Amino acid sequence: MNDKFFDLKKEKQDKMINAALKVFSLCDYRRASTDDVVREAGISKGLIFHYFTNKAGLYEFLYAYSIKYLAIELYQIVSINEHDYFELIRQTQQAHLRVMRQYPYLIAFLSKAEEETDPEVVPLIQAKRTERKKEYQKIFDRADMDGWKPGVDTEVARNIIHFTVRGIEDAYLKSGEFTPEELIERIDEYMNFLKPAMYQ
Amino acid sequence: MNDKFFDLKKEKQDKMINAALKVFSLCDYRRASTDDVVREAGISKGLIFHYFTNKAGLYEFLYAYSIKYLAIELYQIVSINEHDYFELIRQTQQAHLRVMRQYPYLIAFLSKAEEETDPEVVPLIQAKRTERKKEYQKIFDRADMDGWKPGVDTEVARNIIHFTVRGIEDAYLKSGEFTPEELIERIDEYMNFLKPAMYQ
Amino acid sequence: MNDKFFDLKKEKQDKMINAALKVFSLCDYRRASTDDVVREAGISKGLIFHYFTNKAGLYEFLYAYSIKYLAIELYQIVSINEHDYFELIRQTQQAHLRVMRQYPYLIAFLSKAEEETDPEVVPLIQAKRTERKKEYQKIFDRADMDGWKPGVDTEVARNIIHFTVRGIEDAYLKSGEFTPEELIERIDEYMNFLKPAMYQ
Amino acid sequence: MNDKFFDLKKEKQDKMINAALKVFSLCDYRRASTDDVVREAGISKGLIFHYFTNKAGLYEFLYAYSIKYLAIELYQIVSINEHDYFELIRQTQQAHLRVMRQYPYLIAFLSKAEEETDPEVVPLIQAKRTERKKEYQKIFDRADMDGWKPGVDTEVARNIIHFTVRGIEDAYLKSGEFTPEELIERIDEYMNFLKPAMYQ
DNA sequence: TATGAATGAGCTTTCATTCAT
DNA sequence: CATGAATGAAAGCTCATTCAT
User: Which domains does chain C have, with CATH numbers?
Assistant: First the structure.
């Protein structure tokens, strides 16, 4: 990408970023059209190629920008001293909520990007995908299992929690029927169901 | 579609079906190319249009065929007298396993098709999608909650179970690193974890 | 073409000829589809290629057959001793009428073929087109101008007559609203209008 | 269509219009290929679709443009005070002549378009076809029959005149052997032949 | 820097033609 | 002979990308 993008007014940068996040979160990479991005952002066709070389470059930039932005929020919101697993889930969701307030489509975009299989872009985001996963692992590695039932298979337990969170998020992203705040509330409800299965 | 397709040798029918299932399960509708289907099936370009009119027609046929085939297996494997929720999950997975032996990509295709949003095909499969959902509901409606902890929120519990099954399946479909049999085993393991949370 | 075509039962020959005449008289060469011919004739796809090599071959045969058939009728109906121009026109139309009774689309086909510009078939029928024109010239060369106004430009007069006949025929072929008999009557009416302009 | 077409330099617009008129006047709608138009106009494949959406859109535009352009010339050349039938014919032909100087294939295109039966485009031009016919009727309705022989069947007389004009035009459009000026002259000659048949 | 007209490779679809049965 | 399933070249159309202004 062309670093001069960052010399643009923050406002214009965000207009382009939000437009692209929206388009790429609603359609997969291939179907998303640069025309749509351009129309949504209210800029000219050439500009996107001026700053991002090509569609794949735009996608790559968006992915990198998104996980970086999310990482910052996670860093600020998720307490370094929190060791309770469910509380970490909660704080993670709070971070998502804040991200969505600035970039409404960022979380949806990342979720869609995880599924992306297009050989044109997978290589461009693969490394960052791993990085992102590690970021989350780092957070949840802080968790101790104090107070958990002995003999609970931690791996299995964690996966169930994450599958559940993802399931709820997916339903949210697809339906668009409820607000980010309701999403958080819903996740809470499910976590409260799962807690007794883990805790003594 | 052209019903003469069914006059072809079963072998050739399946070669075409398997090729199309594979291509459509790896790529979404728009990105999936008829060239790929044709190459994978080892047939000529025109043939697919001869039998299925157009790409959307092929997709529509595949979806209808898939849920019908799956329904037959479900009907045969899932016992009408089974009322235990986890056992029903188990039998459902057994049916999936059998389907995958004949059509390795069928389950993955259906999973992908659930996410499909392309306006060219959504109308063609929407009705069947609903039908399919009902089919599953009918199965799990048989379940009684005998022996479940009183006060368990059934809706939440069921969703957690399904999110977990889906999470495992997704990981399976994406990685391709393990066999259908291992998938079943894995699901069993997770279900065994969840059972104590539901049962008294 | 394959001369064995003529070994077929006359009935089957005519079924194929009539089907092809119909299709080629309704659509121009390129747009006319062999599938339509085959469906209309109730024969199999391969047969048409067996007897006529390809679509152009079928067209070439049809044209040659049509002008030959028409020539025979002209020869029988148009009197060798008739020297009155308008009477020759009349007899020519009578011949057309008889042709249409056996092959309803033959005249329309020839009319359409005159307009055909497709480089794939024009070379195949060009010679016969000229031949056909000569055939008509031969008929009208018999006409003497006895009784015509002196000083009438014969060339111009003849052309006006022919443009008029063609104009009426075209309207007939396009509308399909009146019968071949009415066509003849209509032409008579116009010829009666023109006669005083030519005759003393 | 995309109205930005009209923002192009007049020269380029006309290059595209003339190319398309030529291709569509030589071949009917179906057989005319966008590749030919593009080659003839010296532009790229995509451009034609950028401005006219699709082949049918190009055809529709061409027809509308052609009759509008012709109507303007007719309005300017054909005198509102002229009531002599043959003089109106003459002036109409003068208008055609002027049109052909700017767009050599426009008259031929309209002539071909009158015959077009392709269901893909007929609905797009039908209304304009009727409009065009009315335009001509309006012109010839001005004609009085002053000085015509009493008892002349006006309908028949007019049709003969028009069949003759059309016959000469057709020959002109097909042969390409003579100039528009010669066409006018030829029509004059034929009209002079017909006048005595109508006038006292 | 910003624009948007222009490009052309790539994909879907059609249909004359072939060929195994 | 007759069939019709199978072929593949050709045509319409899309859209990422370029480039003159």
Answer: 3-198 (1.10.357.10)
